[in-house]
Amino acid sequence: MSGRRTVSRVRSVFGVPPALAAAALAAALTAGCSAPGGASPTAAEADPVRGEPAPSAASPYWVDPDSDAAHQVRAWDRAGREDDAKALRRIADRPVALWPAWDAPGPEIVAAAKAAAETKKSVLLVAYNIPHRDCGLYSAGGAKDADAYRSWLGEFAEAIGDAPATVILEPDALPHIADGCTPPEHHAERYQLLSEAVDTLKAQPRTKVYLDAGNPDWIKEPSKIAEPLRQAGIDRADGFSLNVSNFQSNASVKEYGALLSDAVGGGAHYVIDTSRNGGGPLTGDRAEAWCNPPGRALGTPPTTDTRDDRLDAYLWIKRPGESDGTCRGGPEAGTWWPEYALGLAERAKS
Q1: Would you say 342 and 88 are in contact if contact means Cβ atoms under 8 Å apart?
Q2: Which end of the chain is more exposed for a tag (fewer CB within 10 A), N or C?
């Protein structure tokens, strides 16, 4: 399964305020060939580390100047940890997704959208509040019922308004149907809610929506997630997302993404979470390999310059440096963990 989710409002273990709960409210109130269908890189374009196209276009997404990573950089600069602060800028200076609050998402989204508009950038958001979320694991919960979810999602969409935005819709929700984790009695409601959510979000004039489809190490046969995507309204969305909060390599995810695109039909587009996949997945002891695995690294920086017709973007959907859960000595899911963040940054290859 994927890594557990980010909760952007959880306080840092370093005493730093979360990314937008304080700062944003003050301002206005998370190797190989390209997949079939894409152009192969030339030798001059290839990244010498990854053997794949090196991003050349600036990211169109907003960078939060008051993120936990940015606060940490400033704190380490003051403390004389200049080398650590420099390394952590690999996170602080790049756009990461916002996972709005599970009670009132509006203020955070309004603040982020306003700040993004001032820099002529698009805001990257994750809608993660589906009822019966995460099968009782580290991020268990979600809206109490279908009506509560509709209300929450409506506030989410209204807060976006006409601002440019990209929304990753409900990580894990469809993979947990495909793997049998979500009980059958909840399937029809979940499909209905996701389908409605696609329409509600797409009613906003500049919003892109990607339904989550897990990762190739989780739902190994693309055909098993293709039908759930269709039932959830993929034909009215902009595509699907892969590798959210996980560590699978770009090469394996692109191969899977091309197969899933074919299975869904219509040349479906997709995005990949590269926030922590620079070192690939954990090998050897794979117990809870998705949860705070040691030795991982930041992956391809966020960009829409993918050199692949169906791959719309590499994104940092999981907020790198925020814990997956209390495994391996980590703090609660979504809590900023500065030393883990530093490790990701120090091992990054770009």
Answers
A1: yes
A2: C
The HSE-up count of residue 108 (CA atoms within 13 Å, CB side) is 26
pTM: 0.86
Strand partners, 38: 308
For the chain, the maximum distance between any two Cα atoms, rounded to a whole number of angstroms, is: 56
Residue 117 tokens, joined: 């508009």
Tokens of 299: 């992956």
Alpha-carbon distance 278 to 247, whole Å?
8
For residue 279, give both structure tokens. 């070192």
Altogether, the residues listed in the chain come to a count of 350
Which residue bears the tokens 């003051």? Answer: 78
Q: Is 199 a catalytic residue?
A: no
Is residue 4 predicted with pLDDT exceeding 50? no
Q: Residues 315, 273: contact at Cβ < 8 Å?
A: yes
Choosing from 64, 84, 172, 212, the catalytic residue is 172
pLDDT (average), residues 126-133: 95
Distance, in Å, from the CA atom of 170 to the CA atom of 146, rounded to the nearest integer, reads: 14
Residue 9 Cα distances to 36, 101, 213, 330, angstroms: 39, 7, 25, 17
Q: Which of 68, 84, 134, 212 is catalytic?
A: 134
Tell me, yes or no, if 312 is annotated catalytic. no
Of 45, 91, 142, 95, which Cα lies nearest the Cα of 339?
A: 91
Backbone CA torsion sign across 12, 15, 16, 17: positive
Q: Nearest-5° angle of CA 271, CA 153, CA 201?
A: 50
- Return d(Cα 130, Cα 150) in angstroms, integer: 9
Residue 141 has a pLDDT of 81
- Residue for token digits 């690939």? 280
pLDDT band at 138 (very low <50, low <70, confident <90, very high): low
∠ Cα 301 349 82 (to 5°)? 90
User: Which pLDDT does position 301 carry in this prediction?
Assistant: 96
CA of residue 113 relative to chain centroid, distance = 17
Is 273 assigned a catalytic role? no
